Amino acid sequence: MEPVGEARSIERSGSEGRPRPRVVVGVDGSPGSRAALAHALTAARQRGADLDVVSTFWLEALYSEFGWMVRSEVEPIRRATREQAQALIDEVRSETGPPAGSPEPRVRLIVEEGTAGWVLVDRSADADLLVVGSRGRGALRSLVLGSVALHCVTHARCPVVVVRPTGPGGATDRVVAGVDGSPGSRVALRAAIDEAVRRDAEVEAVAAVYLRGDTWIELETLPGTATIEGVRREVAARTERRVAEVLAERGEESPAPDVRVEVVDGAPAEVLVQQAEGAGLLVVGSRGWRALRGLLLGSVALHCVMHAPCPVMVLRPAPDDGTAPGA
After folding, report:
1. Contact 275, 264 (CB under 8 A)
2. Which of 77, 209, 221, 240 sits at 20 to 30 Å (Cα–Cα) from 46?
3. Phi and psi at residue 273, in whole multiples of 5°?
4. How far does the chain reach from its first CA to its final CA, in angstroms?
5. Strand pairing partners for 162?
6. Number of alpha carbons in the 13 Å side-chain half-sphere of residue 216
7. What is the rounded CA–CA span in Å between residue 66 and residue 91?
8. Which domains does the chain have, with CATH numbers?
9. 3-state SS, residue 19
10. Are 118 and 10 in contact (CB under 8 A)?
11. Which of these, 156, 199, 158, 208, lies nearest to 179 by C-alpha position?
12. What is the rounded CA–CA span in Å between residue 220 and residue 195?
């Protein structure tokens, strides 16, 4: 265990001088953050990464009937926050030990003043992955998605995984990726393949065919597909080509998982949630073709984060080259 502290810098070089990957996870003692910590530990082990466990307290929430707390009153709260977070780390590490022969990640506990969403987004700037629970202690029980998770998915500068409190996920031998031909979905497919390699899993590349009213597919771009079956064949062919292109980018020397293409009728968001049943991870781009340009998070990604039965990874394509920040 690395010494606990609030320092902003840490040595991240590996034995060969290359930067070490880094996973960041937010914890607050809620069931969602406990599941997020378990997922983050596994992700760090799979990546050979360091793990930063971040817990926050908000001074504005510490106003009492006697006025604002002075610094001497705040320090006990900082210590209590650190102690509770450390106890959670110890518990989860003991419950989710690494596979035989796998190295344990270097873990650093960071206790920081501020609102959780802003602190985690700030910490995501030089991270490879940010993991959060779907709802924290401050979220209303009726909310499906908490404000911290929504803020992180919308603003984080690296890929984000949102984990539900029901557990870290289903079977780890299947990773589902949403594919619609947008830059975001291409990045999602790349990330899904990387995740599948780490997990020794297969990838299920899912394309939805939705032909009601506000159609997801512009039929005029699909010549010779007057029938729904023709549309399905064209979508399947295009998706197969995208999969082949992304696999080719990896090079012959890089390991590659089995990738299976599934074309499913229905609204994309509902199809992806349905196909994610029993999966270890669902990977989506932050915005697909249908999202308005001004939106930071599209409706499909938001629906998946809110309703998918497994952890959901959301990636944003960079504006210049179509790759995701931190991917």
Report:
1. yes
2. 240
3. -65, -40
4. 26
5. 132, 312
6. 23
7. 37
8. 22-163 (3.40.50.620), 174-315 (3.40.50.620)
9. strand
10. no
11. 208
12. 35
Distance CA 218, CA 97 (A): 49
pLDDT of residue 184: 85
Two tokens, residue 5: 């502290």
The model's pTM: 0.82
**Among all chains, which residue has been given the structure tokens 């994610």?**
276
- The answer to whether the CB of 285 falls within 8 A of the CB of 183 is yes
Q: Where are the beta strands (DSSP E) in the chain?
A: 22-26, 50-57, 107-113, 129-133, 160-163, 174-178, 202-209, 259-265, 281-285, 312-315
Record the tokens describing residue 246, joined without a space. 């992304």
CA 143 to chain centre: 19
Q: What's the CA gap between 171 and 281, in Å, rounded?
A: 9
pLDDT less than 70: residues of the chain: 1-18, 59-72, 99-101, 136-145, 167-172, 212-226, 287-297, 318-327
Question: Using CA atoms, how far apart are residues 139 and 20, in angstroms rounded to an integer?
Answer: 34
Question: At 132, which helix (H) or strand (E)?
Answer: strand 129-133
Beta-bridge mates of residue 25:
53, 131
Type of residue numbered 198 = R
Q: How many residues does the chain have?
A: 327
219: closest CA among 238, 239, 234, 241?
Answer: 234
Spell out the residues 6+ positions from residue 167 whose beta carbon is closer than 8 angstroms to its own.
35
Distance CA 283, CA 273 (A): 11
